[in-house]
Amino acid sequence: MKLVVVSAGLSVPSSTRLLADRLAQATADRTGAEVTVIEVRDLAVEIAHNFTNGFPGRELAAAQAAVTAADGLIVVTPVFSASYSGLFKAFFDVLDQGALDGKPVLIAATGGSARHSLVLDHALRPLFSYLRAVVVPTGVYAASEDWGAEGLQERIARAAGQLAALMTGPGRLPAARAAREDEPGVVRVGDLETVPFEQALQALRRPS
Fold first, then answer.
1. Are strands 104-111 and 140-143 parallel, antiparallel or unpaired?
2. 118 and 202 share a domain?
């Protein structure tokens, strides 16, 4: 079982990476998963090149493959201007379409003040829902004053338990499979089928 952690911290050491490591350890303790950490700052140049030429460099391609193959994902970003960082968003912008379909994801963020904690629900959760990931109910936000407090560790344990349950439970959604040859355009996620909007619209336009 593979657990991939995407950390978008910029400094060394980084509170974002510290939170990522604590979440990863708590999840790995429950699942026995092999942990791979992706530091997005190390991929900044290759991400920029991917935007301009359409091709990932070697390290970025390896990171993309790791995310796609993961059984579970932990994503952690610092808060910039009341949202996730631009570099964090850019990493997910260059992922292949469908890479996160049905994948369990734990969202987390760090910031200097507790007033930024809503970033989990107004920015991160909508992003990964749009990418068709399965976001665990508990997100983890760590402000400067949270470090060393029991409340943070409790949230880490709760979120890690929920991610572990999705990764190992019988009800886990598999990644979206390729459409069957006799159903062009249909994407299957577990037992569910979705049809692209344009295809559904064309069906409505057909004369009865």
1. parallel
2. no
Structural domain range at position 194: 177-208
Same domain, 186 and 143: no
What is the C-alpha separation between 10 and 31, in angstroms, rounded?
Answer: 29
Residue ranges for the chain with pLDDT beneath 50: 173-195, 201, 208
Question: SS3 sequence, 130-195?
Answer: HCCCEECCCCEEEEHHHCCCHHHHHHHHHHHHHHHHHHHCCCCCCCCECCCCCCCCCEEECCEEEC
Can you tell me the distance from the alpha carbon of 115 to that of 93, in angstroms, rounded to the nearest whole number?
Answer: 27
Check: CB of residue 119 under 8 Å from CB of residue 86.
no
Strands 72-80 and 104-111: parallel
pTM for the full predicted model = 0.81
Q: What pLDDT digit, counting tens, does each position of 65-87 carry?
A: 999 999 999 999 999 988 999 99
CA–CA separation, 184 vs 110, rounded Å? 43
> Quick check: 52 and 45 in contact, CB under 8 A?
no
Same domain, 76 and 105: yes
Q: Return d(Cα 187, Cα 195) in angstroms, integer.
A: 7
